[in-house]
Amino acid sequence: MKIGCVSLLSLALLTAGWIADADQKPGAVQMELFGGKRGKVPFPHRRHQTTLNDCGLCHSLYPQEAGVIEAFKARGDLKRKQVMNKQCTACHKERKRAGEKTGPTSCAKCHQREG
Fold it and tell me: Is 14 helix (H, G, I), strand (E, B) or coil?
C-alpha cells in the first residue's frame, strides 16, 4: 500500500512540475510584439494557443520564427498596422460580436507606453 501511495505521489509531483514548466517551453511564453510609437504589445501566446486551437490561423501567414513580423515589414510585405488591424483586432471584434470572451478591441488596451 505504501509503495502504491509513494508511486502515485511521485507521479503527481512529476506531472505538477511538467505543468508548471509548460509556460517555459518555446512558443508558449509571454511574447512582446513591436508596437511602434504607441508602445510594445504584450502577446499571451499560450492563451491564444489554448483558445484558438488552430496554430494555422496565424502561422499560415507568419512563420514560427523570432522577428518575422519585423522582417516582413522591412521587406515591404506588411503595411503599417496590417497585423493588428487585419488579424488581432478583427479577430477580437468578431469573437465579441459572437458573444465569446475575447481580448481587447482598442489600441490603448494592448499598447503599453514606457515611461
Answer: helix
The angle at the Cα of 29, spanning 102 to 68, to the nearest 5 degrees, equals: 85
Helix (H) or strand (E) holding 89: none
CA 29 to chain centre: 8
Ramachandran category for residue 67: left, alpha or beta (phi over 0 → left; psi -120 to 50 → alpha): left
Instruction: Report pLDDT digits (tens) over 52-98.
Output: 899 998 888 888 888 888 898 889 988 888 888 888 999 999 999 99
pLDDT value for 28 = 54
Distance (Å, rounded) from C-alpha 43 to C-alpha 113? 15
What is the pTM (predicted TM-score) of this model?
0.65
DSSP 2: H
Angle at the Cα of 79 from the Cα atoms of 65 and 71, rounded to 5 degrees: 25
**Residue 86: DSSP 8-state:** I
Q: Name all domains of the chain by residue range, CATH numbers in brackets.
A: 25-110 (3.90.10.10)
